[in-house]
Amino acid sequence: MTSLRPFHATDVFKFNPTNLDPLTETYDLNFYFSYLARWPHLFTAAEGPDGTIDGYIMGKLESSPSYYVHSEHYLPFHAHITALTVAPHARRLGLARTLSSCLETSGDEYDAWFVDLFVRASNKVGQALYHGLGYSVFRVVKEYYSDDPTDPTKDSEDAWDMRKRLKRDVHGKHARSDGLKYEVNPEDVW
Amino acid sequence: MADQLRAAQDTPIWNAIETNNFKQALKLVDKRLSKKHSDYLEALKIYIRSRSPQVSEKSAVLLHLEELPERKPPFSDIEAIELYDEALNEVLPESNETWERIIGQLRWQCVKINPKNEDLSLKCFQECLSKGAHDHARQIANSLEKNFPKNHSYIFWNITMMFLFSTSEKCPENQRKIWGGLALGQIGKLAGATREAQDQKRLPPRSIQTPQELLILDRITQTYGKPDQRLVYLQSPQLGPESTIAKAEWQLWRTKLKLMEAAQQWQDIFDTTAALLKRARTKDESSQLSGSRLSDWLVWEAYVNSAVELDGSHQVQAETEAHLDPAAGIDKSWKRNASLAQVKLSFESSTAFSSSKSDRVAAVVKYLQEYGKASTAYNDLRPFVECLSSDQRLELLEILKTNTVFSYDEEGRTRIYPAKEDLSTAGQITQVVNTYKLRFLLTCALPEYERRQSPLNNSTHVGFNCASCSKPCGLMCKYCLEDAAKEAIQSYRIAMDDDGRISNALLKTDQHPADDLSILAAMCLIKLSLLQTENNSEPLSRTTTTYVLQAAVLLENAWLHSKYNFQISQMLIRIYNYLGCGSLAMRAYHRMPVKQIQQDTISYTLFDRLSSSHPHASSQSIAASSKQRTPVEQLQHQQKFYRSSRGNIIKNLWLSFKHGSYNTIFEFTEVSEKLTHSMAAAMSVIESRKISRLTVPGTPLTEISNGFDILPPNMEFPEAKYSDNLDYESFPNFEVSRGARFEELSRYTPRLSAHRCRLNLAAEKLMLIVDPSSDVAQEKEMLHIWLKQYLDSQKQSPSEHVGSEGMTRSEQLAAAGYHTMALILRASHDQDFWTENDLQGTLDKYNNDLCARLEEQAALVETLKEPVPAFGSTLHVLYTVHEFGRTILNLCRYLTKQRKVFFEKQREASVKIEELARKLLQQVVDKCTVVKKGLDEGGWIDKVLESTLPDAQEGDGAIVSSLRELLDENFLEEWAGEVVEGWRDSVIGFSYLKPPPTKA
Hints:
The structure holds 2 protein chains of 2 kinds. Chain A is an alpha+beta fold. Helices cover 20% and strands 29% of the residues of chain A. Chain A has 2 domains: 1-59 and 72-112, 3-Layer(aba) Sandwich (Aminopeptidase), CATH 3.40.630.30; 118-190, no CATH class. Chain A has helices at 16-19, 29-38, 95-109, 124-132; strands spanning 3-6, 43-47, 53-62, 78-86, 114-120, 136-145, 157-165, 183-184. Chain A has an 8-stranded mixed beta sheet with strand order 1-2-3-4-5-7-6-8, with helices on both faces. Chain B contains 42 helices and 2 strands. Chains A and B meet through strand 1, helix 1, helix 2 and helix 3 of A and helix 13, helix 17, helix 19, helix 27 and helix 29 of B. Chain A: This is Acyl-CoA N-acyltransferase.
């Protein structure tokens, strides 16, 4: 069964089915709670028949600060996927698609221009997932990550900034199909 | 400008403070005060005095601070109050109650004097909130609302604070209804304004306008409103889930549907859910299924339930088909709900599909065929399969056994499982895993559950005939469990024998799809181990041990292929703890990425009773360097989490107010409560103190050191509430959904309980009283006051100090002994007691009780006839008994120093008690020597191998041969070596179990 519900603060006591997986980082409470305090409507859990957490998505809605408005890297009001995770037992069911669609719907509800996310250049599985969900690379952030899990000799890795247009972006000005050509530095990314 | 001037004038004073030249600082302040008096300078003076290291000065400051709230007129200078705030923190840090009484009151008075100073009010509100001074925060929020009427947020701050205060423990009982009622009344008015507004896009300030405001409306109404009022709001077009202001907040739909079901509004539910499901499959103007989430399982469930009540099954059937139509383009996660709704309908409706017995089985099989490639299929189907009749179960079992479920050939030819070709893809392996889990449910878990529930399950009758195999059995059927284990092992072997086809396609971090076969087999083996009761033979010749070792080696083998499967690790921790291989249990624990909040939920798997299993640092290397902490360091690291989490929650409470996330505030408060009263936190304190006392004897463990500060006061009292945040859910479980989980069924030792925490914390304080360390001398008077209160509280709840919830036999005996020790200590100190008519008689009774406990403990040690190798239960007895013996020796020493009038009456008994305690300690040490010598001998690896894979005996050879086929010999030998090393490593801890000291 698939059932979504808001992620509650008390879910931190029961998110081990997702967070004991090595691909999901467990942060301090401040990380989860600051999202719940600001964007509770963008933090959604998928639960199983016995209430087990099968997956969750954390997101936010924001724009670059107003002093940044004239920068070419200015980001208008948009939704951002901060974390999307599905427990090992609940994979291959389409839950990642379901959860990200849920965030997109909220983005539309709050009149955002697009949804974006960062994914490691080496994370081919993640990239394939997001391509399948309709995301495309908008730009490449050079040396965004301070490590490269696929190559211990490197001390950085690029990030792909991927985007999906929302209803407000009627003319598609906030997404592009040739984003791999556009490279920016980490300091350009707000 | 004034601020700058003050800062310039203060510079020399602050310079003096920074160099700890408080005398000079005070002199400078006095000089300025002599010219012009100011509240600020008076406060600065108090602050400087609070920095003094002298206790007398700190006490004087506290007395001064206590008088401040009564001052007339109150302070209006916030900087003066902030200095008093800091002064209080210097003399009494972390005391929220005192802060609230003094500083909270000063801050509120200051806001009252400056009601139009918004920044000041906000600052004071934030401070009061952070210290849990809810009543003052409520008053400030009220002031903000009154003085800034155009600010929409403050209206809700006030309502939220009234409600929060009314539900807090600090709110006097007679005020709860007042503040709750006021919150309800005010928010009700705002709800009315929203409903009456002409334009929902231009609502007046005093109205409900956001999803979070709707959620807080529901929360307050649920607590203080009439039962049906919530539904009235949720059914209103302006306040319900479809209102403009709800912004599609899904929680509102969830609540509305649940309330409608509770109110049995079947026709409304049917119409509403039918409309939602239709919308879910209807494309919008851009050809998108933007409402797809409306086909949530909650909606389907309500739809089917209402259809069953209204005989509308055909509509449901039609709706499921519409959702399952490939042309509808619905995502597979939502389609799954439609398929499951068909299963539900076939089970719950008397008319759907004519609902014959075969139809139900057919519905299960159909779902399994469609979704069997996902692990969740078993969980989805389990509640339905549990409802099948005996005949239907047999029918399903036959289908599952003959493997007609996944044979897709149209001619219906059947194939026999396990067959190699059926396990050639990850999806097919998962199908097989689901099949085996269902077979386990039908043949083992379900019949077991029913036998447990049976009226025949009582102490006089434990014999049953197994419904699956028809053989005689107890609560568990040995034959069925062996069968299930054997088949799962065989199937696992075939799945893994893939020439790397599947394994190579997996990411390093992936779990292998066949893992659950191994886990299932290990579960059966663990259950089989629990069937056996023999204890007098050598540990390695017991059948129990054979099963446990088989489970361990099976899981270790599975771990080699799936290093990130945390369920394998969880099971291994339990098994190795049972076997007494603490270092291997630690290794399994560190294979999981436990951090942050998981230290509260998962740490119990290793740390509970660590002091009596593996209190020392392991000699075996554990992979990551950061994890190579000693047990005490690991526990202290856990305690750091509790300290930091407070600040994290407080910070975000304020952020929630700022961002209007009112509902979230109550969730944070709940988390805060749960962490404050966490059972795992108490466990951490207890275990770290026990280990410290053992490994670093002579170190004074004052009350405030070693973790007590992370617990609220008096957690040992009967009325202290504990929060059980322990995660049992992530432990693997294929048992019946409505029965006990496997985690519970497979416990070799009683679980962590509030009862045990209370008794252990009380014992910790008793140990402090008799602690010979001079460093704790000044605490002892306070501890005697505590002791009196504690024993009085026990009198009021006499049932609390007896009972055995969560306790082993040695813990029960120790707890009873500590209770008697508490009574003797009170008698030794309470002079009123000495005037009792029969002091000697009472003392004799206490002393006799204590002697009896010591003798019982000795008998318990004596029962450890075959202690080599020392399994977990043996280690636990030795450590627990040794601690008890040491404490009683300390008691004897302490009593000799008590007043003569008392000690004269105690002298004779003390001699006997001391003798028994010494004997007990020597007995423990002797037993340790036996274990150490035994393990020094050779041949243990062979013994482990012989025990794990014994020569086939009647009926149980199948598991052994299945394991032999699966396991590589080199791997087996290496693993057996690790187990032996684990036992030898555990023996290192015996060096802390000292013989009794020589008599003075």
